[in-house]
Structure formats: structure tokens, C-alpha cells
Amino acid sequence: GAVVSQHPSWVICKSGTSVKIECRSLDFQATTMFWYRQFPKQSLMLMATSNEGSKATYEQGVEKDKFLINHASLTLSTLTVTSAHPEDSSFYICSARDGRTELGTQYFGPGTRLLVL
Amino acid sequence: DAKTTQPPSMDCAEGRAANLPCNHSTISGNEYVYWYRQIHSQGPQYIIHGLKNNETNEMASLIITEDRKSSTLILPHATLRDTAVYYCIGRSGNEKLTFGTGTRLTIIP
Fold first, then answer.
1. B22 vs B90: CA distance, rounded Å
2. Pair A50, A31: CB distance under 8 Å
3. How remote is the C-alpha of B76 from its chain's centroid?
4. Which of B38, B94, B102 is nearest residue A104 as measured by Cβ atoms?
5. Exposure b/e, B50-80, CB count within 10 A at least 16 = b
6. pLDDT digits (tens, 9 = 90+) for B36-76
7. Distance, CA of A54 to CA of A32 (rounded, Å)
8. Of A39, A69, A77, B48, which one is least surrounded by beta carbons within 10 A?
């Protein structure tokens, strides 16, 4: 199998607080994980690429100081939304690249819905 | 990665085969064609991928034209649970995935 989990599945927070989202590959090791954001009725937008043991690579326009990414192990990456504001409300989805194959098919988590009040 | 073009929406009767087209005329020789789908409010689900040859798995079949400029994803017996947005993506090696707008497939009872 190739299962990716995310926690929490949804979170509501007050403006100005920080929120941490976890992404885990349950049955495979993932040297690379990706974080996406999806607004209503839009497609997925890649935010950053996270490699185990190194700094994340952020896409243009994504603030690295606001969206902190840590990839401490081959099965866990975390995204922290710092000082969240209502415009950060979105559906956050992670994916993990399957390290068992050369192609490294990406498998996605179920997503985390964030609502900032 | 190759730019892909898909129809924005399609309907298919339940029990029939759903054929979803994708144009990728600028695909390079080492780019694979990947298909994912996203059911409402869930993360994308991997379906299938191929390079040159047609591929089949338990979920679907992928037919790639000989010139590799287009492909078709076939869901052989569509069910209501197949209603989703389907994404066709060109990807070389183990590069990142870039999602377009996809095709919204609606299965009609």
C-alpha cells in the first residue's frame, strides 16, 4: 500500500495564532514530501517541496517565514502556519514521494481544512 | 513539465465506460503521463501512469497514442463513486506534480 495521513483533518483557530499540520507516510519512506494549498473551486497549488534533513524549497510567492516546514524523518513532515489570518483559511494537502520506486509516485494525504476566525 | 489540456466537464451514465481525454502535445520523451482524481473535499488519489505503452490496473486503463500527444483514461464501468475531478499531468523523472484545472466527471444514475 501507499498511505499518507494528515493530522488534524480540520482546525479552527483565532487570528494571530499558529497552527501545525502533520503529514505522515504510513507504510513507506518518503525522502521528499510536498505541501499544497487549495482554495474553493480552484486547483491545487504547490507551496513547497520538503526534503528529509534539509531546508524546504518554496514556490514563488509563498512566504517561508509564514509557512514553516520541517521534515525531520523519512515518514514525517510538518507545516506550521504562523500568525494565521483569515486569508490563510484553505484546504492544505500534503503528498509523499514513494521512495521504494525509482519513479517515486506521489501519494496524497486526505487534507486539512483550516479556518481562521 | 508538459502542459496538458482537458475538457472542463463530462457526464457519463452509471455502468458505462467513462473515457476522459487529455492532450499533451508538448510532452517530452522522458515525461510520463499521470492521472489523479480528487473526490470532493478529499486529497487527490493516484490512478495510473504510463510512458508509451497502454497500461491497466484495478482502477482504470490508460491509452496513449503512438505519437504520445494525447491519452485517454478509461473507467470501464463507472459508478456514482467515480464522480470527481480528474487530473492529467505530465511529469519527468521524479519531479513535482503541477495540477491544471482537470475534468469534472459526473456519473449520472
1. 10
2. no
3. 13
4. B94
5. beeeebeeeebbbbbeeebebbebbbeebee
6. 999 998 999 999 999 999 999 999 999 999 999 999 999 99
7. 10
8. A39
Chain A hits for B97, Cβ within 8 Å: 34, 46, 95, 106
Beta bridge partners of B20: B73
Integer Cα distance of B80 and A21 in angstroms? 31
Instruction: Write out the E strands in chain A.
Output: 4-7, 10-13, 19-25, 32-38, 45-51, 57-58, 67-73, 76-81, 90-97, 106-108, 112-116
- Gap between the Cα atoms of B98 and B108, Å rounded: 29
Q: Using 50 as the pLDDT threshold, list the residues of chain A that sit under it.
A: none
Select the residue from B55, B89, B94 to test the A interface by mutation, using most A Cβ atoms within 10 A. B94
